Amino acid sequence: MKRLFPILALVALAACARPGVKLIPESKFDTVIDGKQVSLYTLQGGGLTAQITNYGARVVSLWVPDRDGCLRDVVIGYGSIDAYLDNPGERFLGSSPGPVANRIGGASFELDGVTYELDKNDGENTLHGGFTGIDNLVWDVVEQDGSSIKMQVVHPDSMGGFPGNKTISARFSLTSDHALMVEFEARTDKATPINLAHHSFFNLKGSGDGDILGHVLTINAHAITPVNESLIPGGEAVALDGTPFDFREPHAIGERIDADDLQLHNGHGYDHNWVLDVDGSSALSVDATVFDPVSGTFMEVLSDQPGLQFYSGNFFGDGKTVDKYGHPIAYRGALALETQKFPDGIHHPDFPDTVLRPGETYTHTCMYRFSVR
Fold it and tell me: pTM to 2 decimals?
């Protein structure tokens, strides 16, 4: 049975084999980039502790009590700003990628009769905004209290090839119901595609603690948008019945990940967009759940978005990438569950519209809510 964290969970820390919260020193992120101050901020609320930097509006650590009340850092991150600026491995850990998260096929698109050429940073395609996305800009902190922080950045016209001066904000909050909530807004002065996402990589056993193949996953979706070998969708949705992609009932991630399936071959595992079963309203719905039998940690993913990208860490394990504690990040050592509109939506009129126009406001709320079993 699912239950909330014990009220006296912190008292149990004395009996834990693991230490309590191990904060990264804020001095490790104290620097100036492009004339703007980079800092590391610590939030506490709802029994959770998070550290967040305004470099890329990214979550660096997130401490969550397990079933015994012991605290585990359940997201992968680096231990200094230098590691984010110069690392041989994953660029997007914990970040807010964009202005268009996920992929744009052919690194170009046409909008209102104008063709825009984008950065090719993923073969012949554009991934997460190109070489300079909002994940590697310094955001301005505009509001802050003990449990929440709001940041804002301007992604200027033509950066990465994208049109429009885009003003984007992200608010991170630790809520009373044990959740990390992320609220995005965006405005533009020229028509442009916008599709934001939160890109934390989770291991509910704890950062650097093996793989996530034993995590038990559900996804509230009836279809995926299948992809080619470059992970670009063709524009259709395919039903999940009888496939390794059907997570409407709980399955361990590793149970079917190596099945002889074309889509699993194309993605080198799971790296696909699920078409969520949502009613189209602005209300948050539970899109997915993840349970780790080892720690007893149960995570719900909620959002107001139509799609969910599930990535099973298929490109980790190069032996070069270590986390903030010096642990190597294992092959399939973390998973991402990114609520968003569909990838490559600018090319597919049947996909949810990703175009934002002057006078409109893009909004996106997602939440990662924790409890124990």
Answer: 0.94
